[in-house]
Structure formats: C-alpha cells, structure tokens
Here is the input.
Amino acid sequence: MLSLAARSGALSPYLQATNVAVNGSLKALLPGAVKGDSLLKSSSKTAPAISACVSAPGGIRMAHTDIKVPDFSDYRRPELLDPKKSSQESSESRKTFSYLVTGATAVVGVYTAKTVATQFISSMSASADVLAMSKIEVKLGEIPEGKNMTFKWRGKPLFIRHRTEKEIATEEAVDMAMLRDPQHDKDRVANPKWIIVIGVCTHLGCVPIANAGDYGGYYCPCHGSHYDASGRIRKGPAPLNLEVPYYEFPDDDTVVVG
Amino acid sequence: MAASVCRVGSTVGRALAKARSPILLSLRRGQATVTYAQSLLGAPETRLTALDNGLRIASEETGHSTCTVGLWIGCGSRYETEKNNGAGFFLEHMAFKGTKKHTQMALEQQVESMGAHLSAYTSREHTAYYMKTLAKDLPKAVELLSEVVQSNALSEADIEQQRSVVLRELEEVEGSLQDVCLDLLHATAFQGTPLGHSVLGPSQNARTLSRQDLVDFIRSHYKAPRMVLAAAGGVTHEELVGLAKQHFSGVSFEYEDDAVPVLSPCRFSGSEIRMRDDDMPLAHIAIAVEGASAASPDIVPLMVANSIIGSYDITFGGGKHLSSRLARLASEESLCHSFQAFHSSYSDTGLLGIYFVTDKHHIDDMMHWSQNAWMNLCTTVTESDVARAKNALKASLVGQLDGTTPICDDIGRHVLNYGRRIPLAEWDGRIDAVTPRMVRDVCSKYIYDKCPAVSAVGPVEQLPDYNRMRSAMYWLRF
Here is the structure.
C-alpha cells in the first residue's frame, strides 16, 4: 500500500561490477548480522575515493541506509499511528472493516448494474402509448339502466350493461346444473349492477346482439346462441360463457378495463 | 587403463572375501558408531552461572584443544535512536584500535602471538566480541576481551580515522545486494520503529558521531545483566567463572537516573519499497510477513514450514527431483537464480519471508509461485512434506554446530534470548511434536490474509502491484 520508489542512477556502476556473478553459496540469513573486521584480516581500507563521493552534487545517495522511509502517519488508520504498539491486535478489526465495506459496495454495485441493465433492456418492450391503448376508461354515468353499450377495445367489441335489480336477482337465482358452462353470477361480476363482457361469441366468433334472445341477454344471429344477462350460454351451439375481461373501478363512476 | 583398474579391483575383492574380515564386510562399515538419539543425549551439558552483578557465564566443555570465548551483549541497532543509529557499529570498529592498557600495536601483538582470531559482530539486538584461541590461552583471552569491552581507548584520532573506514564500508555494502534488500525490508516493514534502523547507520551519523556519543552508548547499554560470557571448547566452567570474577566483576549493573532502556513493541507495517535500476542484471526481492518472536512456541512449526519451502540455487544439481516444490518449479521453469525461506526473530516480533534473486523476466512468476507455496503451507501441506522437513531441519540444526565458534555463538545468543541454552535434544523433541495440522494452523496464523512487506532492488518493473501481491495472500477457493 505504501510505496517508495528511488533510482540509484549514478551508483549503478558500483552495483553492477560487484554482482554479476551468481551467488554460489547462499549466506545464512542471520537477523541483520554484520561481521566486523577481525584483527587478522585487517583491511587496507584507506579513503581515496570517499571524499569525491561525499562532495558529489546532491541527488546521489551515499548508502542505502540513507534512504528515509517517509512518515505516512497522515494516511494511517488511527489504531496504527503509534509505532510502539503491535499491529497484530487491530488486524482482525481492520480486515473486517475493509471486507465489510468492500462487500457492501459490491452488493450495491451489483444492484446498480442490474438496474441499469434492466432499464436498457426493458426499453425494448412496449412503449407507453401502446400500453395505453390496451386500457379503456368508461364513464358509467352515461349508461342508463337496462342499456348495453358497446366499445371498441383491443380490436374487439366490449359490452358494458347496466343491469336492473330484477335482472340481477334472476341471474343470481339460476341453478348451476342447468348451465353448460357453470359459473355463478357472483363470479362473473365485481359489482352486480354492471356486467362487462367481451362481445365475441364463443362458438365461432360473431358479435351477439344485445337485448335479444330468450334469456334477456344476448343473441348471436350466426348460429343461434342465446346468452343471459350475465353473459352465460343457455341455448345454442356455443360451448363457453362470454369472456369477462379484467376491470377495476377507480371510483363509482368510472371503470378501467384491461 | 580401465582393464587394469578392473583387474586390481577384482583382486582386492577376492582378497577381502578370503580374509573374511568382519569389519570390512559388515553392513555397518561406514556408519557412525553412535546413533543420532545417543549423540543427542550424550552432548555435553551447557553450564550456566551468574556473577553478583548479573553477568552470566555459560560454557560447554567439548574437549577440543581449541576454544572460542566471547562476550555477547544484549544491545544492538534496536536500542539506538535516529541520532545515534550506527553507534554500535562504529563502536565495533573502534573495538580493536587499542585499549587503556594496550595500544593497537600491543593488542595486535598479543593476539597474534597467541595465534588467536579476535572478531566481533553487531546485529539488531545482539553485539558480540569473541576470540578463537587455544584452550590453554583462555585466561589471556578473557583478559583481552574484558579490556576491549570495558576499557576501550576511544581516542579521537582513531575515531576520525575510523570514520572514513565506516563510510567506505557503507559504500562497499551497496554491492552486497542481499544485505541491501534485507535492510530495506526491515526499514519498510518496521518503519518508524527502532527495528527499522539498519545496523550500519546512515552516512550522516558516521560523519558526526563523536567520542561522547560512543561513551554514552557504552554507559547506557554495556551493563552486566545484559552480558553473557560464553565459551565452548576445551574449557572448564570453574576456570571460566574464576576468570570472569577476576575481570568482569567491575562491570556496572546500574543505570544512570534509573533509566533502564525498555524495549517497546515495534509496529509492523504492510508496505513495499522498490529500488528500481534497470541497469542491474538481477533483481533481489524479499517478501515477508510479521513472524514469531524468538521465545514464541510457534518458532519450531515455523522453522519446519521454512524447511518445507527450503532454499535453492541455480547451481543445485537436483533439477526436477529436488524435494521442495518451489525448488522444482524454480529449476524446471528457470524461475530464479536462488531463493531461500527465512525467519528472522527478535525478542518480541519477527520477519517470516522468502528472498529470491531472479532476472527481470521471471519476477512475476517467481512471486506467484512463492506465494503459492505459502498458501500451500496454510492449506494443504501433507504428512510427507512435514516428515521430510523435520528431518532436514534436524540435520541442519546439528550440522550448524560444527566447531567451537558456532557452538559458542549458539550459547551466547540462546542465553540472551531464552535465559538458558536450549539443548539439541530439546529442539529434537519439539520438532518431533510438529504435525501437519500444526504447521497449517501456525502458518495460517502468520501468513494467511496478512499484509506483507516487500522490498525489491534491481530491474523490478515486472514486480506486481502491491494490491496484487496482497490478494495472493489468500485463496478464494478456500
């Protein structure tokens, strides 16, 4: 973490000349022992070249022992500021802190990456105007009781019928055993006053006529399927009840279908 | 030529077979007569006594006709400050330049006439003055040593003269890149602490240290409780104690103002220092983590671990059959010129590392495989690795003690570090107790996921960034 780089520039001739040969025998690494000179091999050490080195221009280092490791106290963690305290005690907590921060950053980073990626990919899905076309909002106040209104929705006719009390009671009283596709009225409406179905005959796809047929509901002229006021098939070739789409009432006067 | 050799050989063989001499034909021919275990137990005991002033005397009587006797002092560059860093080294230079009783000439004459060798060394925590001489010259040797240590002349003229010698030596040591690299390693690993000081001291101090500085240094550190008079060879302990009483009773044991120098712990900093010079042919690189202190119980497993990594030199002939995995790689891929695993331990800390010398194109690979070897030690070291390393370590411990001087040095350092001499039998027992699990645990404690200190000298462009080296101190696969 803490680096110090130094060039030995002008001392390189000294260093080169002495270490080209490979160390044949490894010196045992005693803890920093420096063998002193013994009397028998008193060296003929004189000082010819020293003065030249010493008075050399600044920037040339005399010895590696002159290298001062800078004081990095400004960058140390507080528990490591005291040089007289062993660093072992705090090592556990320091590592935990670093790894937690790294881990948390990694998790946050993954989520960020996922978010960015999904944002780009989901930009390829249907745009808002297309999605808007998939819903229809209808003001229910404009439909009088007993009346059926037809709307174009997702390319298909949508029937919204304001049912009278009598019709509601009749439909709820119908016996399941008599139905080809047994469904109770309660299961087909959210609010019994309003029956909302898709106006496509389940036989072969014609559009039934409202307020027609023997059961007070719809009649399909193509092959004679009779539906009741709940859109259930009663007579005729159609196999299933009219489909009920997803709808919700944001308030009493409006319904959003889709 | 070959035919005549064969003929002679076969004749000799036939003669031997006819003679049926049991010694010549026995399977034990060429083997030692004493087993390893016996030799360990039979080693002479190191005896230890202390004088009243705290000076300790330790000796091993080996029965040689020569002996080595010396004074080991518990002081070194670690006790120096920025201002007097290098005083110990300077003092060592001054040691043989004459005492109050003998001039330099007289001193040299005395030593030469005995046929003795008088030497000294200074390290970060120890200083030693010792003499190798005939056993019968022990009294004279102790007398001269006591003079050298206690009544050094320290004349101003000699000090001035030695200044240039010290400066010259500083210049010369620049050529020994191993020393430069390891000095820089200490400087960066223990930056801001006394252990970061080099023994030699900066050149500025060599130029400005005065006689007073040296006298102060002696007065603060050459105290009897921190000294050991050690001897090995044909010496009797009683004689040595008598001589010590005679010459060393006067060594002071009190500090001025009761200012006892207490060693404070030294902070280890994971850091690096790069001295790049592309004109050098080889790069010298050392990477180390904080290791164990000399008295720590982890010392032996770490020594075994270092034996597993071992050492290598390009002149080794083993090639791909060398036992250390790193050495095999170094040989086959020509990764380096030499490497060695080292552990320098001090009284409360240490440096456990690998030092290697390589050319500028293999630094990255060598560093990668060195750290790989470390990771291996922490995770997957096997029974056979440990068994081989234990044997190698035992052999090297025994092999190092091959003479009175290494033995005397051993005694001196042990008494300073541990308070007693640890016999080979004890080392042997402790080494035997090491298991692979222990090696893994101890190595993980010191090496795994720790910030290393790195020093690099030479054409080191290829040395990876520190963050990469730090990341290689753990394995994600684990």
In short: Confidence is low (pLDDT under 50) at residues 1-26, 30-56 of chain A. The helical segments of chain A are 12-18, 50-54, 88-122, 128-132, 165-172. Chain A touches chain B through 64 residues (CB under 8 Å). The first strand of chain A starts at residue 5 and ends at 7.
